């Protein structure tokens, strides 16, 4: 397989389109293929754990909220406000200390039917500032993302924050493919095109899209015709079962076989993203 080791995928798009849902299902599917998978929640409104059925009271604390840890690593613990801080803090030991193991059936790790557990790392993001935030939190987050994306061998899936404001060089450096999720709606398509454009400007070569919450097949055609230079990897139907799983805090992977099958196909099409981000066949 072309993505044998170390494939790095980021998932973006407008708010509520299905980024987290797709990230969780793909993470599980890569794990079932035998890959070591690291799923990273890089959204300020962290919710990737809940898509794996982890209840909020059991969700790991986002690393960006660990003030003491950030202060220690950036060297601001003993300094006064406004003092210098380390721009490249040591973070390489942190993923394994803070990830939790999950699988398609939920937070329990011992379930052979689901393959290797997925390692879930909840980073969070800085809400008030985008790229280039000159603060210890910004340096810490940048170092962690760079380490997890560039410095590790797992298949890495990054659940990005909604919209384009949060998408800076720091969050996508080293990403092989950016997948924008789009639902039937002009604003969602517009955001998808903006995210895709920015991804290309940031040097990401593979940019694809997934249509989600489709209720009529014609909607997929409209989306396809309005996406600019972006390969449509798949189209997922609106599923009440998916919505109910979210309401009931159940893992999405077990909620809807049709959605999982469609995402398996879409995942297979990732290889169609050539260096220009257009279908090669
Ligand atoms: N195919 C689908 N059918 C029905 N409901 C869906 C589908 N995909 C996602 N949803 C539901 O839509 C809502 C938003 O999905 P999700 O949280 O994955 O989106 P998101 O893009 O990550 O949102 P946010 O921008 O808030 O992070 C959830 O309630 C989810 O269960
Ligand atoms: Mg989300």
The fourth-level CATH homologous superfamily is P-loop containing nucleotide triphosphate hydrolases
CATH class descriptor name? Alpha Beta
Q: Which term fits the overall shape?
A: globular
Give the neighbour order of strands across the main sheet: 3-4-2-5-1-6-7-8
Question: What is the mean pLDDT?
Answer: 88
Secondary-structure element pattern, one letter each? EHEHHHEEHEHEHEHEHH
**Bound ions, cofactors and other small molecules, one mention each:** adenosine-5'-triphosphate, magnesium ion
How many distinct beta strands? 8
Number of helical stretches of at least 4 residues: 10
CA gyration radius, whole angstroms: 18 Å
- Sketch the major β-sheet: 8 strands, mixed
The percentage helix is 25-40%
Strand portion: 15-25%
Second-tier CATH architecture: 3-Layer(aba) Sandwich
Give structural attributes.
single chain, 281 residues, alpha/beta, 10 helices, 8 strands, 34% helix, globular, disordered C terminus, binds magnesium ion
Q: What would you say about this model in short?
A:
The chain has 281 residues and is of the alpha/beta class.
Task: Give an account of the 3D structure.
There is one protein chain. The protein has about 280 residues and is an alpha/beta fold. It has a single domain, classed as P-loop containing nucleotide triphosphate hydrolases (Rossmann fold, 3-Layer(aba) Sandwich), CATH 3.40.50. About 35% of the residues lie in helices and about 15% in strands. The protein has ten helices and eight strands. The chain has helices at about 20-30, 50, 65-75, 95-100, 135-150, 170, 185-200, 215-225, 240-245, 255-270; strands spanning about 10-15, 35-40, 100, 120, 155-160, 175-180, 205-215, 230-235. The protein has an eight-stranded mixed sheet with strand order 3-4-2-5-1-6-7-8, with helices on both faces. The two termini are about 15 Å apart. Adenosine-5'-triphosphate binds near residues 21, 43, 212 and 242. Adenosine-5'-triphosphate binds next to helix 1, strand 7 and helix 9.
